[in-house]
Amino acid sequence: MSSLTLASGHTTADDLLIDAEADSLPAPRPTPAPTLARRVLLAASVVLIAFNLRPVFASLSVVLPEIIKATGLSATAASLLTTLPIVCLGVFAPLAPGLGRRFGTERTLLACMVLILVGTVLRGTGSIPLLFLASAIAGSGIAVSNVLLSGLVKRDFASQAALMMGLYTMAVCGGAASAAGLTVPIEHALGGGWTMALAMWALPAALVTLIWAPQALPLKPVASESGFTVRGLWRDRLAWQVTFFMGLQSALAYIVMGWLAPILRERGLGSETAGYVVSLSVMTQVVTCLVVPALAVKLRNQRGLAVALALLTVGAMLAMLFAPLGGVFGVWAWAVLLGIAQGGTFALALTMIVLRSPDSHVAAHLSGMAQGVGYMVAAFGPLVAGLLHGWTGSFRASSWLFIGLGVALVITGLGAGRTMHVGTTTVPRH
Prior knowledge:
Largest sheet: 2 strands, antiparallel
Helix content: over 70%
CATH topology of the largest domain: Growth Hormone, Chain: A
CATH class of the largest domain: Mainly Alpha
Strand content: under 5%
Order of helices and strands: HHHHHHHHHEHHHHHHE
Oligomer: single chain
Distance between the termini: 21 Å
Structural class: mainly alpha
Number of domains: 2
CATH superfamily of the largest domain: MFS general substrate transporter like domains
CATH architecture of the largest domain: Up-down Bundle
Shape: globular
Strand order of the largest sheet: 1-2
Radius of gyration: 21 Å
């Protein structure tokens, strides 16, 4: 156990927000408190930045069959293309706190938005090498933004943190749902093919870059301090169970983000309908993202909840492969169930990081471990799903992958859901 303990045995909704950047929380602004107008502008900017963190993933999947047909992209290359941004999440996320301290959180976020903008524009060139490069560029910007943005919310909206994190979650889901549902209609409306449809998602990135630049550039970086270090985390069994629960649920989530639309198109749905199904599933996640944390903290342990959500996730994914897509309990019902399940597992994974941590410093380090390693684990999900399709000519072979990931998610959930803390020691940094 850690040498520091929480002052209270109760965890509240606001406690759940102090989870990822306690040791790298942006330093207070050196300027006087902003006016109401500036706070509204800042809040709107945070929401717009969050909106831009998922279109890179969701827009590609719905036009991937067209990309493969137009370019002759192999199954292996297509799998790598869907996986590359996820790998970037794991590789670049650990660099975010250092970049924020060195250049300032606001300026670093501005640079990230420029990377997302450039990467999205390059995807519209139609060049396969540039398509891979663009995915890596945008993925690196998303990775760093993921880490820094919630820290900014905690610093500048401490008294409205729950509201802002709710808006943040809705914006992330809204960006993914918009990209999944609108990319194909944009392709048809503009008549420019898949290249134009992908490049159009640079517009919201350009908008927020223009809005954010005047707020970020005048601010100079202010040193932030971290007074504690955490020892023993990487040797702790519970920490690894939490980490793999995060990684495995992310693997299933990115399989859905990258391959659900092609799966549905293989089963006979039109490209627009498949995109709308993915969009509905993603938007449904908002509900359980907001409900599950409050439910989880009231339970004696989270093992049953973890198992139930894992089984529901895999069941809904298998239904997308094998169940009838028409009728009352057709594809739309499966999409809602899938969204409920995946929103719940994601929220539970984040919540268990806090519940398994005895203090905010441990939570910061456990979050870094779970998200850094977890995203590397997650990258194998869409990669293997794509490779199985290439080898067998059908997505049905992926059912065994779904089942395997589901079983592993249940096992890690049973471990991570126990009512105990990771075995670490928090000591002052000298």
